[in-house]
Amino acid sequence: MSVHALSLSSLLGFFLTISVLTHPSTSSTDSFVYGGCSQPKFTPGTPLESNVNSLLTSLVNSASLSNFNNFKISVPGSSQNDIVYGLFQCRGDLTNSDCRECVVRAVSQLGILCADASGGALQLEGCFVKYDNISFLGVEDKTVVLKKCGPSIGYDSDTLTRRDAVMDYLAAGGQVFRVGGSGKVQGMAQCVQDLSQSECQDCLTEAIQQLRSQCGSASWGDMFLGKCYARYSERGDFSKSDDGEDVDKTLAITVGLIAGVALIIVFLSFLRKLFETKGGK
Ligand SMILES: *[C@@H]1O[C@H](CO)[C@@H](O)[C@H](O)[C@H]1NC(C)=O
């Protein structure tokens, strides 16, 4: 009995180790960042539901043509109160097909997360989708939606200097999407394109300032406000180079192979122990 228990717990421990080792890299455009829904629910079969469905379809269709679009939907027969507003935006470096793929994913997740809700928002690594029956289009929103800071790197003046240089670069802005790096430190900033240029700059200034003050000496930081975000990382997450991705894939495959072989060994020794216990009786 004790042999069995030991083997089982070591197997369990092993599975945990594998899942930690093979934890997916956050650079995938499909990875979930945050999501939320508004409290009011619509009644199924009402014009509001038709408008929401029609809006989400419009977002998906539009995403293969551009990386941002917004809509105000009112299907025939629906009243002023049933109007639904919505938008999508992809990360500035995505191709149209990657953008569409991301928006399809976001809309389907939103349908599950915010089933029957009159409003919802979802941010994946590669795209942002939001809808509501309260108009929010063209409205600046600097509410902190998600703040995440990595572990502290302690006092490392070189990295901190580089981080500040990247933050300065992002803050200098003037564009809706910016990526920049210094050494290992990479940063990215983007605002939703329904904002004017000055609102965009204002939102980014706030996000970057928050990132600097909140994430202090963290190795990476994410600051998502209602209509813009700024992020930096030392992990190479924002690396678009094929080399970077290939290294990650090779590593994942190698880890997978080692894990597979190790699993077989553990399983065989488990079988052997099981056999010995039975044989010994
Ligand atoms: C949005 O929809 C909810 C649910 O039907 C409703 O209670 C609310 O009054 C609507 N808001 C507006 C601004 O129309």
Automatic annotation (TrEMBL):
Pfam families: Stress-antifung. Residues 30-136, 137-237 form the Gnk2-homologous domain. It is found in: Cell junction, Plasmodesma; Cell membrane. GO terms for biological process: defense response to bacterium. Keywords: Cell junction, Cell membrane, Disulfide bond, Host-virus interaction, Membrane, Repeat, Signal, Transmembrane, Transmembrane helix, Transport. One of its GO terms (cellular component) is plasmodesma. It comes from the Eukaryota. The chain crosses the membrane at residues 251-271. InterPro entries: Cell2Cell_Antifungal, GNK2, GNK2_sf. This is Gnk2-homologous domain-containing protein. It comes from Nyssa sinensis. The lineage of its organism: Eukaryota, Viridiplantae, Streptophyta, Embryophyta, Tracheophyta.
